[in-house]
């Protein structure tokens, strides 16, 4: 498949109903409103294709950009590729999921995440925190810098309440991810969450809620899943 045939298929699968929902969740035009399950059908036909993923992402169409992440070859993605991708990730599904997933699966995940959380643009900062969350979910603890993660939790404690709306949400998710996937930091993540207290995030009229990190980590512990890593970040 080439970019023209993929774009035609995406257009055919677009839905105005899905589009209205995605607009409320921060997805920005242009896009067709394609269901994720339909994107995955196309993904299965393509599998991984480094060049096609770059071409799809470059269209600026949010559906195509999401699909680009699904078919991206994490082993071929360069730091330059990922740095370019994050700058174009103005839709929340791209900045908070697609780009972080591939960054975390690449060789440059931690390096880029630490750069991105220092950015001026809130959507790039959110991408950085999301990348960190994906990293702790998929990397063995032996490949993680535990002290750096502990320092980042402390950074969240000091900055979360004055951070941008979406960044607050992703910082909260980072606490949950560290507490759930890095057992040596579970207790510390809970302590940090208790110090922070409730995290307020404006959800723009959607039904989404910000999970309480302490409660969420407890649920993970109760089902015996603490420290159980995922095979890959993207889903």
């Amino acid at each position: 498949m080439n970019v023209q045939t993929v774009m035609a298929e995406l257009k055919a699968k677009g839905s105005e109903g899905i589009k209205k929902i995605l607009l409320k969740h921060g997805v920005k035009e242009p896009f067709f409103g394609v269901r994720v399950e339909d994107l995955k059908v196309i993904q299965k036909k393509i599998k991984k294709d480094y060049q096609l993923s770059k071409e799809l992402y470059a269209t600026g169409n949010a559906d195509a950009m999401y699909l680009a992440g699904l078919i991206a070859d994490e082993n071929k993605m360069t730091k330059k590729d990922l740095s370019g991708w994050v700058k174009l990730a103005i839709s929340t599904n791209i900045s908070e999921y697609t780009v972080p997933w591939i960054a975390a699966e690449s060789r440059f995940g931690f390096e880029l995440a630490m750069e991105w959380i220092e950015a001026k643009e809130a959507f790039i900062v959110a991408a950085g925190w999301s990348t960190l969350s994906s990293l702790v979910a998929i990397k063995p603890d032996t490949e993680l810098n535990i002290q750096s993660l502990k320092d980042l939790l402390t950074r969240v404690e000091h900055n979360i309440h004055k951070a941008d709306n979406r960044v607050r949400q992703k910082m909260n998710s980072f606490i949950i991810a560290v507490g759930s996937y890095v057992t040596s930091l579970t207790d510390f993540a809970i302590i940090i969450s208790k110090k922070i207290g409730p995290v307020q995030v404006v959800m723009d009229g959607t039904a989404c809620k910000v999970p309480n990190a302490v409660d969420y980590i407890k649920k993970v512990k109760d089902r015996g899943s603490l420290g159980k890593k995922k095979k890959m970040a993207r889903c």
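The first helix runs from residue 3 to 13. The chain has a mean pLDDT of 96.
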